[in-house]
């Protein structure tokens, strides 16, 4: 690769790092002085990002997950993942079911109600992950599992 091509590739990378807040103008100037002979006191010319540029970021929850199903022992509840922005090239979704504040269940969109759930609210928290991080959505709606009927 020629020095010119290397400098152009480097400049392109610097712009993305600058736009994303990874490096400062002073850091760019120091590297440009050391590698490309930028005169002391000059600033390496950084262009503003294009109007349609969106910096990489962790997923953003748009719609909270929702639990559906019959609130009874041995019934299956289902948790939607909700809607998310920033899931292009995503790593996926993780599910955490909760009985009150206690973690229950497995990393699945489905949960089978057990006897210990009776008299409690069941919710689901979905965490979305992409190359830039993970974000947990607010808890889903609560599904109340009725307490067992008392024998008379």
Instruction: Give the helix level as a range of percent.
Output: 10-25%
- Using only C-alpha atoms, the radius of gyration works out to 25 Å
Number of domains in the coordinates? Answer: 2
CATH superfamily of the largest domain: Immunoglobulins
Unreliable segments of 5+ consecutive residues: none
The end-to-end span amounts to: 86 Å
Question: Regarding CATH, which class of the largest domain?
Answer: Mainly Beta
Q: Assign the CATH topology of the largest domain.
A: Immunoglobulin-like
- Percent of sequence in beta strands: 25-35%
DSSP strand count = 10
Query: What is the mean predicted local confidence, pLDDT?
Result: 85
Q: What is the global morphology?
A: rod-shaped
What structural class do helix, strand and pairing data support?
alpha+beta
**CATH architecture annotation of the largest domain:** Sandwich
Order of helices and strands: HHEEEEEEEEEE
Question: How would you describe this protein?
Answer:
This protein is an alpha+beta fold and 152 residues long. It folds into two domains: 1-55; 60-144, Sandwich (Immunoglobulin-like), CATH 2.60.40. It has two helices and ten strands. It has helices spanning 3-19, 25-36, and strands spanning 60-63, 67-68, 76-79, 83-85, 92-99, 102-104, 110-112, 121-130, 133-136, 143-144. The strands form three sheets. Strands 5, 6, 8, 9 and 10 form a five-stranded antiparallel β-sheet that branches. The mean pLDDT is 85.
């Amino acid at each position: 690769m020629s020095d010119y091509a290397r400098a152009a590739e480097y400049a392109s990378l610097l712009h993305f790092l600058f736009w994303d807040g990874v490096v400062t103008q002073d850091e760019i100037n120091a590297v440009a002085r050391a590698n490309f002979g930028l005169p002391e006191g000059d600033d390496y010319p950084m262009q503003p990002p294009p109007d349609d540029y969106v910096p990489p970021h962790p997923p953003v929850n748009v719609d909270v997950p929702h639990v559906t199903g019959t609130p009874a022992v041995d019934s299956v509840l289902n948790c939607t993942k909700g809607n998310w922005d920033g899931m292009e090239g995503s790593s996926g979704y993780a599910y955490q079911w909760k009985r009150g504040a206690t973690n229950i269940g497995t990393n699945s969109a489905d949960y089978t109600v057990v006897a210990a759930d009776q008299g409690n609210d069941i919710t689901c928290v979905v965490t979305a992950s992409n190359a830039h991080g993970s974000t947990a959505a607010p808890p889903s709606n609560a599904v109340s599992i009725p307490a067992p009927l008392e024998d008379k």
